[in-house]
Design brief:
mainly alpha; two-stranded antiparallel ribbon
């Protein structure tokens, strides 16, 4: 459902959120290494996330990417909307362009239930909640 870039962006934002308490900022290279992604890809989506106010950046010797308390409390749907757009929640499970309730694909009804549940989860889960499970060792970003 989500693009690889979007999944990678979510991991990067969780990583940035984990640095919130220490006040540290992270550079592209550090983020890319930690989440095992290409620096080029990470650099592109980080700028998109800054433009969409999902994260912040600062230039200079003490610069880098970081999050505010308010940004840390945002739902992960904000990351998805910034990177993949809202159509990810409306697309057909088989990739058909004309799939609808009046003209359904073979998995339309079952897939709609899953999409709706996933969208609800993305609206309700915050960056902070996901970060907390990583910080507590309950879940992992590496793998």
């Amino acid at each position: 459902m989500l693009s690889l870039t979007c999944k990678t962006a979510i991991k990067a934002v969780i990583y940035l959120a984990s640095k919130f308490d220490s006040g540290e900022r992270a550079g592209i290279k550090e983020i890319a290494e930690f989440i095992d992604a290409s620096e080029h890809t990470v650099g592109k989506f980080l700028q998109t996330l800054v433009r969409e106010d999902v994260i912040n950046s600062a230039k200079g010797p003490s610069g880098g990417f970081y999050m505010t308390a308010k940004q840390k409390k945002q739902p992960i749907i904000n990351i998805i909307n910034a990177v993949d757009g809202t159509e990810v929640f409306d697309s057909c499970g088989l990739g058909l362009s004309k799939c609808s309730s009046k003209h359904p694909c073979p998995i339309h009804n079952d897939y709609k239930i899953i999409k709706d549940q996933f969208k609800t989860m993305c609206r309700e889960k915050t960056v902070s909640e996901l970060c907390d499970t990583v910080n507590d060792g309950i879940s992992y970003l590496m793998g």
